[in-house]
Specification:
340 residues, alpha/beta, TIM Barrel, two-stranded antiparallel sheet, 11 helices, 12 strands, globular
Amino acid sequence: MAAVPWVALILSFAATIHNHIGLVEASVDIGVCYGMLGDDLPAATEVVNLYKTNGIGKMRLFDPNPAALEALRGKEIDVSLGIRNEDLPQLTASVDAVNLWFATNVEPYLNDIVFNYISVGNEVIPGSLGIYVLPVMQSLQKILDDRNLAGIKVSTVVPGSALGVSFPPSSGEFALEASSVMSGIVAFLAQRGSPLLINVYPYFSYASDPVNIRLDYAQFTATSPVVKDGELSYYNLFDAAVDSFLAAMEKVGGANVDVVVSESGWPSDGNGNFTTPELAGTYNRNFLKHITSNAGTPKRPGAYIEGYIFAMFNENQKPEGVEQHFGLFHPNMQPVYSIY
């Protein structure tokens, strides 16, 4: 047998230990979502090297792309791995299908990649696919339990529209069309000690109502409280959105459930003066600072809330307009603006 470099053995051991028992890591690296809806994006190996070069220690993959997973082997980048929305009905119909999905997309990489989360669906609640989420989460959890893979948490990703009430934050509650599904999911998360993954976009709130939502409130730059909610004071819309989700989970028995911000960002183009590189850079720099400061939110001061910037690249196959301009980098790997 050929000699194995010591560094490879160490990385393999670290990934195995994390996936099995779950390590509390001191890394303050921000995560970045690796979207692939572009026909001019660099190869996965180049992308992974770009993460490493820029000190980005966490990656969110929307689906188990084989080239990306191969490129991530031994790279010490923690991965949040998604299941495609269109796969959910098939996976719900058959436990064998879930076993095959895991055997194909996770098991071969367990010794070389640290998987933090497997997210069952992306923004399918509320919606017709929402009913499939919890059964797949339960099947995946059984697989992880059977293999003693306690370091991998199972969750789902929900958008702001999963909330029917979000203001004031303490009144947060799930939308009527989402409440039944979310009650079951939150109970599962509470039982397993897993977080809910939420997408938080102050940009969209600001752009849709700039008269009533201040830019400094949306960009973390307000110097005095903008919203008072009982005894709590809110300086930024991001905290208010997070606390609205926390309040909504409390109302369905999930007071102990944490959140991970699986997407947040600001487009650099596509909507006139609302979307400039300067505004995008300001938001993402302040988001990075807010997440890594462990400031928490007014409802949970001092709590570490993990966060992921959307996205790594501008993607030209997304819908025209702002959706094509959330990237930190152009496809040629040159920065759109600096976040450091």
